[in-house]
Specification:
The protein is an alpha+beta fold and 388 residues long. It is 48% helix and 18% strand.
């Protein structure tokens, strides 16, 4: 009798692995979840859990971490006490067996900087794997699986945001419609990441992300990140390092003032930018003082003020997402001509004066682009003041 049972168990394992292999070969999370639900409806939740575990392992071993995480989340729903597969994936992907010390954390961020920006998933996955095994498992537990159909926005421009997303499967369009910015044709593919600035500060979403195909995503909220960071502080540091690197890399690729730089030069310069959060009302530059760096506004809104001799503040053109400022003082080596104050909480990239001098002095094309920007800004200010 026991032999028959053993043979039945062995046959079941073979069937489960074969089914998992067939599903994995299709490479589709939505199809996998449909198959698992069918098993559940047939009254075989145990078999569904076994197939789910096999799928998670297959995808993890096949360098498809995000899909493996989706399977882990479904496995936790099928079997709430299951931890074996999460541990297996953490052992496979987490770079560190134990949480690094504070000094070790600096080395982790240095390692993060070495990653190349050309492929989205080369950066997104290390957001998980630049961690200890325990922190990795905690982050895996914190993300939630989301499903979106075509035409249902994941995030909406102007709405308050408090989470970031990983696109596991599908494709989405990134639309910018407010403030006359138009709707540039950008898209996010599998392995892409968006919304990460919402983990750093309050503020409105800077774009609408609309799925163009049925999509599966993982969502990480600021609340869950804060909760994890209480036990694993390095998680928050890695997220901040990820946001800084991603923003700086994108800046190097897309902003016109850096178009003259070669790829290696962009990569070198991007590492010099510091990510800064700023509260409303804080002065980033003060008229009459020497500027301390070049700023790029990632999130929020700032207003420059020309200060008259009688102390009256005259507002100039508002600075918005993507705007650069601080270049005039750096280029002319003179005090700042206008005070720049944050109107709302925001996030910026800052290139310090020493880093600016170290890089800009050797890049005539970049200096010319900044000089043109500074000249246009000075002329615009002069016209505005002359009309008062």
């Amino acid at each position: 009798m026991s032999v028959h049972t053993d043979e039945s168990d062995a046959d079941a394992v073979v069937r489960q692995r074969a089914l998992a292999g067939r599903i994995a070969s299709r490479g589709r999370v939505d199809q996998a979840l449909s198959e698992l639900r069918r098993l559940e409806q047939l009254g075989a939740p145990g078999e569904a859990a076994a197939v789910c575990e096999a799928l998670a392992r297959l995808w993890a071993q096949g360098s498809q971490l995000l899909r493996a995480i989706v399977m882990c989340k479904h496995l936790s729903w099928l079997d709430p006490g299951h931890k074996r597969t999460q541990t297996f994936i953490a052992n496979l992907y987490a770079r560190y067996p134990a949480s690094p010390t504070e000094e070790g954390g600096d080395r982790v961020l240095d390692d993060l900087e070495l990653l190349l920006p050309e492929r989205e998933d080369s950066v997104a996955v290390p957001l998980f794997s630049m961690l200890s095994q325990e922190a990795f498992a905690a982050l895996l537990d914190a993300v939630e699986v989301r499903h979106y159909g075509v035409g249902l926005p994941v995030i909406r421009e102007g709405d308050q945001g408090s989470s970031m997303f990983f696109l596991v499967e599908g494709r989405a369009d990134v639309l910018r419609l407010l403030e006359g910015r138009g709707a540039p044709a950008e898209s996010v593919g599998e392995g892409g990441v968006f919304g990460e600035m919402a983990l750093l500060t309050d503020g409105p979403r800077m774009s609408t992300v609309m799925p163009s195909t049925p999509s599966v995503l993982l969502e990480l909220s600021r609340a869950r990140l804060t909760e994890i960071a209480q036990t694993y502080p390095l998680v928050e540091r890695v997220v901040r390092g990820f946001c800084r690197k991603r923003a700086a890399d994108q800046l190097m690729r897309t902003h016109s003032i850096f178009s003259s730089l070669r790829q290696a030069q962009r990569r070198s310069l991007s590492r010099e930018f510091e990510l800064r959060r700023v509260d409303a009302g804080v002065a980033l530059l003060t008229a009459g003082e020497m500027g301390d760096g070049l700023y790029l506004l990632l999130r929020g809104r700032c207003t420059p003020y020309y200060i008259r001799e009688d102390g009256q503040e005259i507002p100039l053109a508002v600075l918005r997402e993507g705007d650069v400022f601080g270049e005039i003082s750096l280029l002319l080596d003179k005090p700042v001509t206008a005070t720049v104050r944050a109107d709302v909480p925001g996030v910026l990239l800052k290139l310090s004066r020493p880093a600016f001098e170290r890089h800009i002095s050797t890049q005539p094309g970049l200096r010319d682009a900044l000089t043109q920007l500074a000249t246009a800004r000075l002329q615009s200010t002069a016209r505005l003041l002359s009309g008062r």
